[in-house]
Amino acid sequence: xxxxxxxxxxxxxxxxxxxxxxxxxxxxxxxxxxxxxxxxxxxxxxxxxxxxxxxxxxxxxxxxxxxxxxxxxxxxxxxxxxxxxxxxxxxxxxxxxxxxxxxxxxxxxxxxxxxxxxxxxxxxxx
Length: 126
Description:
Keywords: Signal. With about 130 residues, the protein is mainly α. It is built from four helices and two strands.
């Protein structure tokens, strides 16, 4: 899976000059490049939110969240990867974006709880 994402990322970098405006992509390579940019931003936001939440947690709560996050990553990868006879593993970038956005929203909900009523340890194991 990492090879496919890396390949798509490298292809996108090679064609960066062509993708002047992601609102008006000219071909599928432009679309891949723009999709990659959007996903990278969403992933960066997820990681920043996760780090903010970790700072609010006690040691045991951090461990619980970390285990839940690893479980989520495995579930996300499984949900967004398909096997193709012709191409092997294929990553559904729209699925990755959707899963990442949903997880960021969930992390933001936990962060708001920590900031208002206190961190609820039982909610971190999801």
